[in-house]
Write a structure and sequence with these properties.
Helix content is 33%, strand content 30%. By secondary structure, it is α+β, with helices and mostly antiparallel strands. The strands form 3 sheets. A 4-stranded mixed sheet has the order 1-2-4-3, with helices on one face. The protein has a 4-stranded mixed sheet with strand order 5-6-10-7. A two-stranded antiparallel sheet has the order 8-9. Strand 8 and strand 9 form a beta hairpin. The two termini are 23 Å apart.
Length: 202
């Protein structure tokens, strides 16, 4: 029997943004990203590559006002797409853990595809949230994105910055750590029969 494809394509339209997202959890990490926020494009490309998720994102938003709506709404839709693509979660590893460096920055992410949305995000240095990265993206957007994704994908995520000074490196290490942990958690484990939960559902 051939396993069902773990893919999803969704669209979201509001007065603040129009977004389409497609994901393939069995991909090779290829991506086509266009959000109008260059540094965010860079982070989503890194997520796709390091999670081995094929990802297409097209977003048009009111970035002339602020990037907040585009970043958050993309996180919402990406989370919903991941949730749909995971299906009934039968056979998944469920848990993933990754510790990822980027020069002086070091981030750890632990992911549980739990069905219970919860984010613990810590360790960023004081003032990081105010720093402008790439001329458009403020450090505060990192947490906004992961809050939106975690809630809508129904993941439990612990994301901790262990070390870091350069804001670009901090954000990128966090995105890559999450990607690697998610890659492990979403992977199909041949030793797992059914849904990996005593409840019988995730």
């Amino acid at each position: 029997m051939t396993a069902a494809p773990r893919t999803a394509s969704l669209e979201r339209s509001t007065s603040e943004s129009q977004i389409s997202v497609s994901v393939d959890l069995e991909g090779s990490g290829s991506s086509q990203i266009e959000t109008g926020v260059p540094f965010f494009d860079h982070m989503l490309t890194a997520f796709a590559r390091h999670s081995l998720t094929d990802l297409t994102v097209n977003a048009v938003g009111d970035v002339h006002i602020d990037v907040h709506h585009t970043v958050e709404d993309t996180g919402i839709l990406l989370g919903q797409a991941i949730l749909e693509a995971l299906g009934d979660k039968a056979g998944i590893s469920r848990y993933g853990d990754a510790l990822v460096p980027l020069d002086e920055a070091l981030a750890q992410a632990v992911v549980d595809i739990s069905g219970r949305p919860y984010l613990v995000h810590s360790g960023e240095p004081a003032g990081f949230e105010f720093h402008l990265i790439g001329g458009h993206f403020t450090g505060s957007m990192v947490r906004h994105f992961f809050e939106a994704l975690t809630l809508n994908a129904r993941l439990t995520v612990h994301l901790e910055l262990r070390a870091g000074r350069d804001p670009h490196h901090i954000a990128e290490a966090e995105f890559k750590a999450f990607a690697r942990a998610f890659r492990e958690a979403k992977s199909l484990d041949p030793l797992v029969s059914g849904v990996p939960s005593t409840k019988g559902a995730l």
